[in-house]
Specification:
about 400 residues; single chain; mainly alpha
Amino acid sequence: MNSPKGGRARDALFRRLLDLVAMPASRLAHQDRNMVGDILLDMLFHATTEERSLCASRLATSREAPRRLLRYLAQCSFEIAQPLLEQNEAFDACDLSEIVESTSTEHRMAIARRKVVAPGVSAALAEHGEPHVVRELVANPGAVLPESALDKLLTRSRDESQLCALMVERLELRPSQAMAMFWWSDGATRRKILQRHAADRLEVIETCKDVFEMMAAEKWADPVARKALQLIERRQRNREALERSPFDSLESAINSAAMEGMNAELAQEIGYLCGIKPVTIAKILSDKGGEGLAVLCKATGVKRDFLPVLWASLRRPLEIDNDEMHPQFAIVAETYEILTVAKAQTTLRYWNWSLSSAFSPQALREAQASGAPANEEAAFSTSQRTARLVFGS
């Protein structure tokens, strides 16, 4: 509550002290400024709203004002704090994080709009998770988003689709986060993810090519190395699966699915021929958008003529009533055209690596139950988090 307004002496003293605190560094010693700031702060505890507003407005652009004084004013009602939160550059990350935790949504919105938002402050705002504040933060080019904040925002983006289009523009977004977000993004965002976050792996393949020979000599016995190399290897299809398959090619399996209708057995067989696990092919075939089908075909060398065949095998329309291409299939067909084979392969292999059963949401719990050391549990974190996000479990 505000104290009753004082007499002329208190008013004059208040204004003199405010003048001193607002002086440039060249005119007032640091020690004097801090002493005056402490006196002024004590007076503000008993000041009116108008007096606090006057103080905040005067100090809005002051970098020299004592931060204790600025923090107090910034945690007052928003009408008082607004000019400081919008203009004052003296606050450090700790100051702003404290204000985030102790004030209102209006205060947090003003902080999200600041010219510079430090990583720790971004993390604090993301933790609060207020949708309109979060969107303002992600859209702010002056905000630095640490990986921990992006992880929180990635989880939120599954239910708040507007975040996906904003997050894909962030330079801090990691490929693993983008590839997880792909599954619940709209078509335009998916295209950006595929174009910006898929790599060609050429240098990686060249650097590790002799390891494939070592693994072959060891008969691929090491499960850790085998799984890592699944993401790196160059091959388009699983030749061993083809030798055991009732079909003479991947294209034959796709034709059969188009004629008979896609079922679980055919889907699994197509997955084996593509060299991916059942959980990965199931995710691709069940995805409503269908861009994953374009990635699958381009990565495995399936010609564009078979893309509509695979689409039709899922009983999805190729055309609309006036014989025009169905708009959703048009997006899928265009995705096929814009992707390079190398980037499509990287995308498919990353999906297969991160969504495989070994990294299911149960993996970490099983590791813990078996008494795995803490560092081994941590190794599951990225892909385990991806699987949980994508499958919603």
